[in-house]
Automatic annotation (TrEMBL):
Peptidase M1 alanyl aminopeptidase C-terminal domain: residues covered: 564-891
Assigned EC number: 3.4.11.2
Keywords for the protein's UniProt record, in alphabetical order: Aminopeptidase, Hydrolase, Metal-binding, Metalloprotease, Protease, Zinc
Species this chain originates from: Undibacterium jejuense
Aminopeptidase N-like N-terminal domain boundaries: 31-193
Protein name: Aminopeptidase N
Cofactor: Zn(2+)
Keyword Metal-binding among record annotations: yes
Molecular function GO labels: alanyl aminopeptidase activity; metallopeptidase activity; zinc ion binding
The Peptidase M1 membrane alanine aminopeptidase domain, residue ranges: 233-450
């Protein structure tokens, strides 16, 4: 039976949580693995939870054929239980129960990539959030934790490798061409952390000695032919283990730790206990196929999944409303890990800026749309739709605010108490907050609002200076707009890190009555807890320039009236690298908004010399790290500019941004050429921080230079493409060629380079994903070109990576072309969502989000968007994943 479709999906509310009627102590499973029909036998020992209001024994199942069900040795007939959708109820069960369940599943037909499915002839599982119910009937909820023993049986020739959670305790031949492997996980875990992998795989393995002296086995499993691409993932795993020992005193608790890479995966990776399953995108890397961004991504994701071993596995979520308890905390940990590996102050700042750019561009937009929800949601229809940037990135910012308020040592004390209290438990976000409060003695009651209130707070800063008394006053006021289901918001507890700069750009010693114990410091963390507060600083000899929200100390929008001169001072001098970058972004945004309005009004476009000279000074300042200069010189994206408007005009924004790029190149051409030459990285490719920084600035310079269409610039890009010995430089050059607006001869040469790139890498799936993505976001690519690329023999909607590389990239990364006036982009979007809904509802729902803010666009575009949304809504057998997104968008 199939339970994937819900005509009228019910809403699940956090307030309705009821503890399970039965706890599970042990789970024994036996798999007879076959791609067409896999038999699963499960034995579950259970005991009644006398504290629960739920009296029935409740199990969940989806897309299963139930072969047999026995309770305490007796076969249950159909009248002994009821099944309603995905829910089975057994009434009047005794207090002690042993359930024996046999099910049949069909991995090859499971295109949802949830549960047990086939990938390139191998078996893979993905059980978070509710995939385990596609394997067997089970109380599939995160607060039900048990110990698992799993027997895997399969044809030895077809599936020579059999992997499971925990430790391998037995393996051997069965005498009929099949073999077995028995795995035991010594730690209790929820069903969403169950995993198995079987197939033809090879591994890189190393014995690693933990800080305690215990030796563990580390393995990275991949398909044959990819073994030469695993070293960076292995190094990242070892770095993660070492970092967690040193930073948080947390040790790997198993005898082995395994990573498996698969090309068919809905997510980036999954933290199953001891058997992490990864999208190949976050494992495979060498200089031939991977860019610097890929290397950084692998390091971050490997760290993230490993850190889940404690923040997510050893201590897990009571229910899915608490998802950020593990995800927000672990994102914070992986961000700190990556920053610590760089080591330098500037390196940490660059990492922070990169993380904040994602938050602002994607999460702030989500907070302003129909899918806005708190970090701890109050309700959902489909839990897969809540693996969002709010849960992850904003959740991380909430954790970072604890760190900011409590300091390094204070935060560590809170973490230690959290583990001491809750190891082996399924808990709530409030339990984490309580550990932070109790360990520090701080009252964090008001801080709970970061979990319960949605939306992005706005902090308005107003200042006054009295020269006679040398007194400076800073008034901070906070507000938060209405969001779906929440019209009124109470004040948040907002840490505002700040400093004051004198006329020369130097930090001023701060004397604030409210923080007298810290007198003389040049950086203070003000705590804004009321709707409005005024902070008074004394002994300020001249009117200063405020540097507020240093290191982006809270996920808020800061409204402050800076003059261009003040922003220029901050950009040139602020001791806080984040705010130095932020000043440049404010200068750029101010001009891009003005120019967009000029485009709409048909006025002549001009770029002022002050802005040009400010960027020139940054570009030529070799005392600044190249990676930092690259960030300052990178203009706000079209999506970020769109957030400045009540009504978005994608074409006008694109025209304005392209004008600024061209104007900067016209005025700074010599400096860009100099930066290009000064940041070459000859010799063997290495993904170290210094080399990556140089390549980032060099390739940004090339990108700018390609905006100025002349023969020498085209030749520069063509030469780099032809001679590049690493993917970072090769792809950057190909992007420059593809976006070059030159002669027909140059266009033909660029097309030939695209063909050569495909020919050289057609057997490397991850590189061909880049090839599709590069074309999808090119400013010459329209809907017709996307449809043409969809007919390419290498394209398929069935693989999430490939679907995202072209269709998602176009819909989300090429706004001026996607939002075509004739509505053709929306018509394509509707077709794609409908088709993906049949194959993989999770992927379809993510693409559906592309139109969730349709009411922010002009009426003529809204009409086309509404038709597309209604077309999807009218689709028969619409999954609840997609139905929730479309329903909320249309109701907005």
């Amino acid at each position: 039976m199939s339970n994937d479709i819900a005509a009228t999906p019910p809403t699940i509310f956090r307030k309705d949580y009821v503890a399970p009627g039965f706890w599970v102590d042990t789970v024994e499973m036996g798999f007879d693995l076959d791609l067409h029909e896999t038999h699963v036998a499960t034995r579950i020992t259970m005991r009644r939870n006398h504290d629960s209001a739920e009296k029935d024994l409740v199990l969940f199942g989806a897309s299963l054929k139930l072969l047999q069900l026995r309770m305490n040795g007796v076969n249950l007939k159909k009248n002994a239980y009821t099944i309603d959708g995905e829910v089975m109820r057994i009434a009047n069960a005794p207090d002690e129960v042993t359930l024996e369940i046999e099910t049949l599943i069909k991995p090859l037909k499971n295109t949802s990539l949830s549960g047990l499915y086939a990938s390139n002839g191998n078996f893979i599982t993905q059980c978070e959030a509710e995939g385990f119910r596609k394997i067997t009937w089970f109380p599939d909820r995160p607060d039900v934790m048990a110990k698992y023993t799993v027997m895997l049986r399969a044809n030895k020739k077809k599936f020579p490798i059999l992997l499971g959670n925990g430790n391998l305790i037995e393996e051997g031949d069965l005498g009929d061409g099949r073999h077995f492997a028995k795995w035991e996980d010594p730690f209790k875990k929820p069903s969403y952390l169950f995993a198995l992998v079987a197939g033809k795989l090879v591994c890189q393995e190393e014995n690693y000695t933990l800080k305690s002296g215990r030796s563990v086995l580390l393995q990275v499993w991949v398909e044959d032919g990819n073994l030469d691409k695993t070293q960076h993932a292995m190094d990242s795993l070892k770095n993660s283990i070492r970092w967690d020992e040193e930073r948080f005193g947390l040790e790997l608790d198993l005898d082995r730790f395994m990573i498996v890479a698969t090309s068919d995966f809905n997510m980036g990776a999954m933290e199953n206990k001891g058997l992490n399953i990864f999208n190949t995108k976050y494992v495979l890397a060498n200089s031939r196929i991977a860019t610097d961004v890929d290397y950084a991504g692998i390091e971050s994701v490997v760290g993230h999944e490993y850190f889940h071993n404690w923040t997510g596995n050893r201590v897990t979520c009571r229910d899915w409303f608490q998802l950020s308890l593990k995800e927000g905390l672990t994102v914070f940990r992986d961000q700190e890990f990556s920053a610590d590996l760089v080591g330098t102050t500037t390196g940490r700042a660059v990492k922070r800026i990169e993380d904040v750019r994602v938050l602002r561009q994607v999460q702030f937009s989500e907070d302003a749309g129909p899918m806005a929800h708190p970090v701890r949601p109050d309700s959902f229809v489909e839990i897969n739709n809540f693996y969002t940037v709010t849960i992850y990135e904003k959740g991380s910012e909430v954790v970072r605010m604890y760190y900011t308020l409590l300091g390094h040592e204070g935060f560590r004390k809170g973490m230690d108490l959290y583990f001491a209290r809750h190891d082996g438990q399924a808990v709530e976000c409030d339990d984490f907050r309580a550990a932070m409060a109790d360990s520090s003695g701080r009252d964090l009651t008001q801080f709970e609002r970061w979990y319960s209130q949605s939306g992005t707070p706005r902090v308005k800063a107003e200042t006054t200076y009295d020269a006679e008394t040398q007194t400076y006053q800073l008034t901070l006021s906070q507000s938060c707009p209405a969001t779906p289901g929440q019209d009124e918001k109470l004040p948040f507890h907002i840490p505002v890190a700040m400093g004051l700069l004198d006329a020369e750009g130097k930090d001023i010693a701060l004397h604030c009555d409210a923080y007298s114990a810290l007198a003389g410091a040049t950086n203070l963390i003000l705590e804004l807890t009321e709707a409005s507060q005024t902070f008074t600083f004394t002994g300020v000899a001249a009117k200063p320039v405020p540097s507020l929200l240093r290191n982006f100390s809270a996920p808020v929008l800061l409204d402050i009236e800076y003059s261009d001169e003040e922003l220029g001072l901050l950009l040139a001098n602020d001791s806080d690298p984040f705010n130095r970058w932020e000043a440049g972004q404010r200068l750029a945004t101010r001009r891009l908004v003005k120019l967009t309005k000029a485009v709409q009004a048909g006025e002549t476009l001009e770029l002022d010399s002050m802005f040009i000279e400010a960027l020139r000074a940054t570009l030529v300042n070799e005392s600044l790290d190249p990676s930092f200069r690259e960030l300052v010189l990178t203009l706000p994206s079209e999506a970020m500019i769109a957030e400045e408007f009540d009504v978005v005009d994608p074409q006008a924004i694109h025209t304005a941004r392209q004008f600024v790029r061209t104007a900067l190149t016209q005025h700074l051409r010599a400096e860009f050429l100099s930066a290009y030459e000064a940041n070459l990285t000859p010799g063997q490719y290495t993904p170290d921080a210094i080399s990556m920084a140089k390549r980032a600035l060099k390739n940004l310079a090339l990108s700018y230079l390609s905006a100025w269409s002349d023969e020498s610039t085209f030749e520069l890009a063509q030469t780099q493409f032809d001679e590049a010995e690493n993917m970072t430089d090769r792809l950057a050059a190909l992007s420059a060629l593809t976006n070059f607006h030159g002669t027909e001869t140059q266009a033909n040469a660029a097309a030939q380079s695209l063909k050569k790139f495909y020919k050289d890498f057609k057997k490397e799936a991850l590189v061909i994903d880049k090839w599709f993505m590069l074309q999808a976001v090119a400013d010459t690519t329209d809907v017709a070109k996307v449809r043409e690329l969809m007919e390419h023999k290498a394209f398929t909607l069935g693989n999430p990576n490939r679907a995202r590389s072209l269709t998602f990239s176009f819909c989300n990364g090429n706004p001026s072309r996607f939002h075509a006036a004739d509505g053709s982009g929306y018509a394509l979007w509707a077709e794609l969502v409908i088709e993906l809904n049949k194959i993989n509802p999770q992927v379809a729902a993510r693409l559906a989000r592309s139109l969730d803010r349709w009411k922010k666009y002009p009426l003529h575009l809204q009409e086309h968007m509404k038709l597309a949304l209604e077309k999807v809504a009218a689709t028969k057998k619409l999954s609840k994943d997609v139905a929730e997104v479309i329903g909320k968008a249309l109701a907005a």
